[in-house]
Amino acid sequence: MNLTKYLLLATLALGSASVYAEGGAERSKQFWQAFREDQQRLHGDKQQAVAERERKAQERAREVAKD
């Protein structure tokens, strides 16, 4: 192959790479936002976890008091 074919091939490769990369930053931001929302939904808020532990402890105390 001569030099012009290599230059044409390089130009096409770089041009197609930019097409595939278009919107990459937005997709990355969307992924991390969705990930944070899923983690929040799964693990909840720390205050919510403390309240849940206190509620369970009160339920256990009531069960022990009934016995």
Overview of the molecule:
This protein has 67 residues and is mainly alpha-helical. The chain has one domain (3-66). The protein has three helices and no strands. It is rod-shaped. The N and C termini lie far apart (90 Å).
Q: Notable features of this structure?
A:
mainly alpha, 3 helices, 67 residues, single chain
In short, what is this structure?
The chain is 90% helix and 0% strand. It is mostly helical.
Secondary structure category: mainly alpha
Give the overall shape, derived from the CA principal axes: rod-shaped
Q: Major beta sheet, specifics?
A: none
Strand segment tally: 0
- Give unreliable regions as ranges: none
- Spell out the helices and strands N to C: HHH
What is the radius of gyration?
A: 28 Å
Number of helices: 3
The termini sit apart by: 90 Å
Mean pLDDT: 81
Helix content: over 70%
Tell me the fraction of residues in β-strands, as a range: under 5%
Count of domains: 1
Keywords: Signal
SSE map:
Layout: H1 3-21, H2 24-43, H3 46-66
